[in-house]
């Protein structure tokens, strides 16, 4: 019989993020289908507040690794903490959120404990009496269902695939766990954290809207000239007013390699599609994007998809978008920003 453990690292304010609450709901649902109990394992400077916030989730036990050395992401400390939690809970299945911090360490912990790991799982079910996971392959073009006999089995759940577990505050009894840290000391030290302000941030995973900027923004417009500075201003204004998240294709990010100008705020972190992320926002708006499959595949899980393009025969017109506006994106976005003022 399997024993399920949900693991998470606390946020900077000692709470649990939305992605972790989604993974908690996934672990709880799987435990219910299997008819087994599940436990919670937390890592952070302090974990009591986070444990109290979900004390009513139905977990059989709470385990915690706490201390200043677990404040920030660091492979040595995170791996030691998660391995200790899995051992303390006697877990055969360990479930966490596919956040950057958790994804960096979870497969390594599986290797330490001679287990197996599956990343970015989008669904958890039970086939017969065996837990089964669903994963997408080949750049989200094919999905597969698989199960594993090996234990322990470490699973990271992609954000946006499960509803967040509702917070049911109470007082949780947390069993402290002491991991074995490297005997030679910690070589990596976090001296400071530099992050953009909320106004400068353009990647917002929890935003309701994903704004996709295509390469058309950098091309010559109706007057025969390119207007890159104006395009940057329009896009940044809209992102700020709508608090939307920004996505783009690899072609736009790599324009600099072709000797063309590129928007200064775009990086490979913004890539959506076969070379980038697969976001799951409630709505999506693509502009100046030709809409071929390599790019649209990255946002096929968007709830409502709309696009703005001058070409009525572009890929978006062939069923890729729910609504296509045949218009000039510069004019449309200027008018939209004016309405939002």
What does this structure look like?
The chain has helices at about 20-35, 50-55, 75-90, 100-110, 230-240, 250-255, 295, 330-340; strands at about 5-10, 40-45, 60-65, 95, 115-120, 125, 130-135, 140-145, 155, 175, 210-215, 245-250, 285, 305-310, 325. With about 350 residues, it is of the alpha/beta class. The chain folds into two domains: about 5-175, Rossmann fold; about 210-340, Rossmann fold (3-Layer(aba) Sandwich), CATH 3.40.50.1220. The protein starts with a strand and ends with a helix.
Name the features.
341 residues; Rossmann fold; seven-stranded parallel sheet; five-stranded parallel sheet
Structure described in brief:
The protein is an alpha/beta fold and 341 residues long. 25% of the residues lie in helices and 23% in strands.
Secondary-structure blueprint:
Blueprint: E1 4-9, H1 18-34, E2 38-44, H2 48-53, E3 61-66, H3 75-89, E4 93-97, H4 100-112, E5 116-121, E6 123-127, E7 130-137, E8 142-146, E9 153-157, E10 174-176, E11 209-213, H5 228-242, E12 245-248, H6 250-253, E13 283-287, H7 293-296, E14 304-309, E15 323-326, H8 329-340
Parallel strand pairs: 1-2, 1-4, 2-3, 3-10, 4-9, 5-9, 11-12, 11-13, 13-14, 14-15
Antiparallel strand pairs: 6-7, 7-8
Helix pairs in contact: 3-4, 5-8
């Amino acid at each position: 019989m399997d024993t399920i453990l949900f693991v998470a690292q606390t946020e900077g304010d000692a709470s649990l993020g939305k992605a972790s609450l989604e993974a908690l709901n996934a672990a709880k649902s799987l435990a219910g289908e299997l008819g087994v109990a599940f436990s919670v394992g937390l890592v952070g400077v302090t974990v009591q507040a986070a444990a109290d916030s979900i004390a009513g989730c139905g977990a059989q036990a709470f385990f915690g690794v706490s201390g200043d050395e677990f404040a920030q992401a660091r492979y040595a400390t995170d791996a030691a903490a998660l391995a200790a939690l899995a051992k303390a809970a006697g877990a055969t299945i360990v479930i966490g959120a596919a956040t950057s911090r958790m994804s960096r360490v979870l497969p390594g912990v599986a290797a330490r404990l001679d287990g197996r790991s599956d990343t970015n799982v989008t669904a958890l079910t039970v086939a017969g009496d065996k837990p089964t996971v669903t994963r997408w392959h080949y750049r989200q073009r094919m999905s597969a269902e698989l199960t594993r006999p090996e234990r322990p089995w470490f699973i990271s759940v992609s954000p946006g695939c499960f509803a967040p577990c509702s917070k049911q505050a109470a007082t949780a009894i947390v069993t402290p766990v002491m991991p074995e840290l490297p005997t030679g000391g910690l070589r990596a030290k976090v001296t400071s954290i530099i992050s953009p302000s909320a106004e400068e941030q353009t990647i917002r995973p929890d935003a309701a809207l994903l704004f996709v900027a295509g390469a058309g923004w950098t091309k010559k417009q109706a007057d025969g000239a390119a207007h890159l500075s104006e395009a940057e201003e329009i896009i940044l204004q809209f992102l700020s007013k709508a608090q939307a998240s920004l996505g783009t294709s690899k072609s736009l990010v790599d324009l600099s390699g072709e000797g063309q100008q590129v928007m200064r705020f775009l990086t490979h972190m913004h890539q959506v599609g076969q070379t980038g992320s697969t976001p799951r926002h409630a709505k999506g708006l693509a502009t100046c994007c030709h809409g071929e499959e390599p790019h649209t595949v990255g946002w096929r899980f968007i709830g409502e998809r709309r696009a703005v393009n001058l070409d009525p025969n572009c890929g978006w017109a062939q069923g890729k978008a729910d609504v296509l506006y045949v218009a000039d994106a510069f004019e449309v976005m200027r008018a939209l920003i004016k309405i939002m003022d």
